[in-house]
Amino acid sequence: MDKVAGSKNDEFYTPYYAVKPILKYLKKGATIWCPFDTQDSQFVKSLQMEGYDVIATHIEDGYDFFEYEPNRDSYDYIVSNPPYSLKTEVLERLFELGKPFAMLIGVVGLFESQRRFEMFRDNDWEIMYLNRRVSFMKDFTSGKTALNPPFSSVYITHDILPKQVVFEEIDKKQVLLPV
Ligand SMILES: C[S@@+](CC[C@H](N)C(=O)[O-])C[C@H]1O[C@@H](n2cnc3c(N)ncnc32)[C@H](O)[C@@H]1O
């Protein structure tokens, strides 16, 4: 695949309360690949805290999602919040990889391009709606949320949720994983 460039608007990080609703749908003892994450990520920390094995890879550490995959037999799920500017390319690659996945993605316009229309039409997937909008963080430690997005985020999943549409409530006070 040609090199795919992200954008600086991709540097927003997920608060713990937005990771929490997906946790109960992942089988205990599983190994989870977080392909857009460093050890600081709330995905990585929360999954480890719940007892999962986590493979965290990030472009800064030399692991380009479009070129790298851990050994296929070594992981069970792919879970993360991907770079927004690459959501179509990310979803296409995820469907190609064929493993169960869950990606937290802004829902506005998600079904509106012809390319994504065809992708969603031709693949099996599920969606999780959250009752509140997720406010993303600009750093991993302060707990401050810089962006209050004018759109809702959803989990698009493949082979994870028990129904095609699932609704979950979040508690926005839990920004960082309790230590
Ligand atoms: C929206 S941020 C989310 C980060 C983290 N997953 C979280 O939820 O806190 C997406 C991250 O993916 C990284 N990224 C961009 N392109 C990538 C690529 N091709 N492979 C791996 N990581 C990439 C960005 O640098 C950015 O840190």
UniProtKB/TrEMBL annotation:
Superkingdom of the source species: Bacteria
Residue stretches in coiled coil: none
InterPro entries membership: DNA_methylase_N6_adenine_CS, SAM-dependent_MTases_sf
SUPFAM superfamilies in the cross-refs: S-adenosyl-L-methionine-dependent methyltransferases
One annotated GO biological process: methylation
A Gene Ontology molecular function term of the record: nucleic acid binding
Descriptive protein name: Sugar-phospahte nucleotidyltransferase
Organism the protein comes from: Ligilactobacillus salivarius
